[in-house]
Amino acid sequence: MKTLIDHLGGEGAIFRLVNHFYDLMETDPNVADIHRLHFRGHGIDHTRVQQADFMIGFLGGRQHYRETHGHMDVRQIHAHVPIRQADAHAWLTVWDKALLDCGFTGEKVDQPRRAVNRVAQILIKDVPDWRVGETA
Fold first, then answer.
1. Into which CATH architecture does domain 4-122 fall?
2. Is the pTM of this model over 0.90?
């Protein structure tokens, strides 16, 4: 039985998608606020690898992220990140652009796209602007 990742072209296709997504994140001035959040963590290069490993497992492929971290609980993963509605919207806009740019269109993409959208919505927290008081 084929998994979602098989229908999407395998691990290599997901690595290309995630890398293109983060290339956009690093260059699109409309998502500069989200890009800055990565500097509060382990950095964008680390995030690229972690996101690819997570998405591969999320789509039914190897479970390297789960094996490494012991879970795939997105709320726990993002507990330290102040995600506002505008942040989720901007992230999803760039994700949709990356999907389109990489040729991920049609019915095979609809299900995982809806799932990623739902995940983004559950991560929204009612927090003040994370930049308040920041000096960096």
1. Orthogonal Bundle (1.10)
2. no
